[in-house]
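User: Fold this; tokens only.

Assistant: Input:
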Amino acid sequence: GVIPETAPFMVWRDKVMMDWDEEMREFLTDLDDTAEGGIVNSSSWLSPQPGGQHLRPAGNGRVLMLWEHLHRHIAVPQDPDMPIGNFLEMYPELCLRGLKEMVPGLECYIEELTKDTTIDGGYYSTTPDARPLVGPYGAKNAYVCGGMGTYGLMGSPAAGELLARHVLSEPLPSYGDACTWPRKTSARADEVVDLLDESAK
């Protein structure tokens, strides 16, 4: 009940320093296997973490929590497997510890994570320049609306309106061409922009 059903979608933008005790700090240092080519970069969790963790009510008393930064270092294969089985076991606790900076009342759930906690997920589809794809593409009268990666929930209303303007041949807003493919306006493909994470800047 800490997050009411009427709560909005909330995103924390500030850096977070998670409050591990000394025993846990030693454990996280020993757990790190990246030097051997593994994916558990737990020693990095001892440092300030970038923001971007977010949550929203998911109905029936459930809360959806995400912090995609935690998987940024994991390489995705050319043909990714679905469903993803490569989630870090500590993902729920890390999300909760990061989000309790925004909602301190969440701390009471840290000891309850084994009860009714579900990890689920997929891949964020993005373009090299992190701009969405919205407009005609491919066959006649075919359109695409996607590639919104980490900001799909926030960007979908505007993307839907933009797509409708394409379909109805109505005048496009000033940013309309920036979302078509091939791109009509240039952007540095090597400079990925993550709207929820300032750590990459």
